Amino acid sequence: MNAELIAVGTEMLLGQITNTNGAFLAKQLSDLGIDSLNQQVVGDNSARLDAAIALAESRADLIFVLGGLGPTPDDLSKQTLAKHLGVELVTDEPAMAKLKAFATQQHHQMTANNLLQAMYPAGATVLPNAVGLAVGAMLDVQGRAYVLLPGPPREFEPMVLNALVPALLKRLGHGEVLVSRVLRFFGIGESQLVTELDDLIAQQTNPTLATYIKPYEVTLRLTAKAGSEAAAEALLDPLEREVQKRLGQYFYGYGDNNSLAAEVVAALGRTHTVVTAAESLTAGALQAALADVPGVSDWFKGGFVTYSNQTKAAFLHLDQKQIDAAGAVSEQTAKAMAEGALKQAGADVALSLTGVAGPGPNQGVEAGTVWIGLAASGQPTSASVHHFPGNRAAVRGRAVKAALFILLRFLQGREKHV
């Protein structure tokens, strides 16, 4: 069985985005023993997509159309495929209910183009979208399978792993299940992680390992095939133990859609710890990351954005002369900020961030230099220096995740003594 992938989107042809979906799907197909012999990229044009489908039919058993399932006028994939195959579009009721619930929550009326997201070619099997609103579909016509998948990677990857791969396994008649376990790491780059696991990757058969880059962190997917879910989990357990033995210091959680902030909030709840923060270079981004997690209001009551030395002193009740003397980006200032925030907010633990995001040095301190402080009731205040690469956004993003990781390790230490 061989496959052809057709990625749809003018933005790829213009070089505005990279077709990462094609590489991701090709890897999954390869793991299943399905050859991906050709890939095409076409713009948002129905006639050209129709021609691409016809070309793929001349040489492939499985035809995948990636993207173009959304509600905008340039999202034409499902309409084009349905017309090409001579079938109607029909509505998936669970997806329609999800659309209606979303519209109610957003207080807006659905238009006809919104409704298209819940539609699929008649006779197809629906591939549910656990993250977004546009359903995927798999349709068999005269011995050939056609698959529609969404374009956004955050929707595409879960649909491939959780809906498409099981459907393909069933189609192939393997009588097996495929179970994946996603491990998330912070503080280690992909190249170093791969180096640490080099022998495991070289020897992999079943289970397998694959790395994926996320913003300022790395995920590792362990996948096993077996006759049952329990048997697959049993294959994964010893592999994970070996991975944790080597990389446990960087590990923070499981799952495709997990985050450092979510892990922190869960740990705050388990330890009944109230947190606050004082931020300089990140300007509230750390607090915003925490606030994105449902339930955080029980453990985060507020914090401080103190961009200048004057606001550091005024908001946190610090001695500005001492801050000026030590420098805004220093161990002393990071500690003082954390202690001041802890006292003023009446929290159990406080984080502080101060540094130089760039693009150039500031007051003799190199861009990318960040001090992160942590103060907690009943223990000495600590501060650590970090040197993050990248532009302003990258330095700030890495600083937020580093602070969250430091806080998570502190809370995990607390759990051991609860």
Q: What overall geometry do the principal axes of the alpha carbons give?
A: elongated
Radius of gyration equals 25 Å
Level-1 CATH class name of the largest domain:
Alpha Beta
Shape-level CATH architecture of the largest domain: 3-Layer(aba) Sandwich
Structural class determined from secondary elements: alpha/beta
CATH topology title of the largest domain = Molybdenum Cofactor Biosythetic Enzyme, Chain A
- The percent range for strand residues is 15-25%
Describe the protein in words.
- There is one protein chain.
- The chain is α/β, with parallel strands linked by helices and 418 residues long.
- The protein is 43% helix and 24% strand.
- It contains 16 helices and 17 strands.
- Helix 11 packs parallel to helix 16 (392-416).
- The radius of gyration is 25 Å and the shape is elongated.
- The model has no long low-confidence stretch (mean pLDDT 94).
- This is Putative competence-damage inducible protein.
- Pfam families: CinA (PF02464), CinA_KH (PF18146), MoCF_biosynth (PF00994).
- InterPro entries: CinA (IPR050101), CinA-like_C (IPR036653), CinA_C (IPR008136), CinA_KH (IPR041424), Competence-induced_CinA (IPR008135), MoaB/Mog-like_dom_sf (IPR036425), MoaB/Mog_dom (IPR001453).
- Residues 4-171 form the MoaB/Mog domain.
